[in-house]
Write a structure and sequence with these properties.
Shape: elongated
Radius of gyration: 24 Å
Helix content: 40-55%
Number of domains: 2
Largest sheet: 6 strands, mixed
Number of strands: 11
Structural class: alpha/beta
Strand order of the largest sheet: 3-4-2-1-5-6
Distance between the termini: 25 Å
């Protein structure tokens, strides 16, 4: 089967500049790709689409090709195809279509690879000055927006809880909380979903975040949360830290290349080094690593609850903590399916069932993410940091669970 080669492109900018490119998909991502390539002065040899009604039409001056026309170009030019669709299922359907037309040797990439190859290598001299300038201006605007929405989002969380008696799903990112949120909403349970309510100063410098992001908003949120609500129900989750960190890396990519690539001077990019560097960065945040320290800087700072003072049931995978007007349910992601009845009791719903929803498989980074999981070699010091003597890890996970994680990440 034709495979997506996103990792190859991410590490080699010449695949964008030196290959003859055809875009597959005349929708939103196709238009974005055409604009990007035009600004970079990179020619596009054609645009194809599965929708027969579009064949013969045009998009930004490029004729929309049929499968047969694409095959004829492929036979003459040996082009590379960038599939500009957002849904991985649609991308895989395109690959099957290409195979059906006999284009078995064609090299295919996704819009994700195109976009982030440019961003990861933004300082490469082949990127023209105009594009580079616009990129950095856009990134500054992104941070300004993030800051404003950050403060407003924290306020929204508290005030929505006041008005609607909503369950607060509050945890570090990439632990499966979105599936939980969708499941609760399906049962008409009001819920608010957030990752941070405290100040960001404790982790901002290590994430290359602008100082502007570091705020004192947490003090105000703490007063509102504890003084103005009669009861607060909070659900928080924990996940294998290495798996969570890798997932988090790609989540930042999906959020417009948060802090990667653009800081490099030599244009050299190795995604495995980048991810392992990111893993090490998270191990260096305080004593036990970002995910575990999150509980002190969020739950403890805002709610005055130190989760490590309570005996977590590592075998059953959950714990409920009661303090003042707060009820806190902690769950290990790996035990989430086993805790459906507990979640139902906590929110007052009978026969609660989780909605099966693998969000990661619906993102355009899926192909690069899946290949990384199959092939990455995790540094031994990172594995040792989490699974050998990390007291926070030991608080939540059994020896058997840690051994399984070690086998998984030490597989090569």
């Amino acid at each position: 089967m034709i495979k997506i080669r996103d990792l190859e492109m991410l590490e080699d900018l010449s695949l964008v500049f030196d290959n003859k490119i055809v875009l597959y998909g005349a929708g939103d991502y196709g238009r974005r790709a055409l604009m990007m390539l035009s600004q970079l002065e990179i020619p596009v040899y054609g645009v194809c689409d599965s929708d027969e009604t579009m064949w013969g039409g045009a998009i930004k001056g490029h004729k929309i090709l049929s499968f047969q026309e694409l095959k004829e170009i492929y036979q003459k030019e040996h082009v590379s195809i960038i599939v500009t669709m957002g849904d991985p299922d649609d991308i895989e359907q395109v690959l099957r279509g290409l195979e059906g037309y006999g284009m078995l040797e064609v090299k295919c990439y996704t819009y994700f690879a195109l976009k982030f190859t440019i961003e990861f290598h933004i300082n490469d001299p082949r990127i023209n000055d105009s594009y580079r300038k616009n990129f950095f201006n856009a990134r500054t605007a992104f941070w300004d927006y993030s800051w404003n929405s950050r403060v407003n989002r924290a306020r929204q969380v508290v005030y929505s809880s006041m008005l609607y008696d909503a369950v607060l799903i509050w945890q570090v990112g990439k632990v499966g909380s979105l599936s939980l949120e969708k499941s609760l909403r399906k049962r008409n349970i009001r819920c608010i979903h957030t990752h941070r309510l405290s100040s960001d100063g404790w982790m901002g410098p290590r994430r290359n975040m602008p100082s502007k992001i570091q705020s004192d908003v947490g003090d105000h949120i703490k007063l509102d949360l504890l003084n103005n609500l009669k009861q607060v129900k909070i659900i928080s989750m924990i996940r294998d830290p290495i798996g969570r960190s890798i997932s988090n890396y790609f989540e930042f990519c999906n959020m417009d290349g948060y802090f990667f690539g653009a800081n490099k001077d030599d244009g050299d990019f190795d995604i495995y080094k980048e991810i392992n560097g990111f893993l090490r960065t998270e191990t260096q945040i305080d004593e036990y690593g970002y995910m575990f320290e999150w509980f002190d800087h969020e739950i403890k700072e805002i709610c005055d609850i130190d989760v490590y003072e309570y005996d977590f049931d590592r075998e059953r995978g959950y714990q409920i903590i009661y303090k003042d007007n707060i009820e806190l349910l902690l769950i290990k992601t790996e035990k989430l399916n086993d805790c459906q009845d507990i979640i139902g009791q906590f929110v007052g719903v009978e026969d609660f069932k989780l909605v099966k929803d693998n969000v990661g498989n619906k993102k355009i980074s899926k192909f690069a993410y899946d290949e990384v999981l199959r092939t990455i070699e995790i540094p031994e010091d990172v594995i040792d940091f989490y699974y050998k003597g990390n007291k926070a890890m030991d608080h939540f996970y059994t020896e058997s669970e840690k051994e399984k994680f070690m086998m998984k990440w030490s597989k090569r």
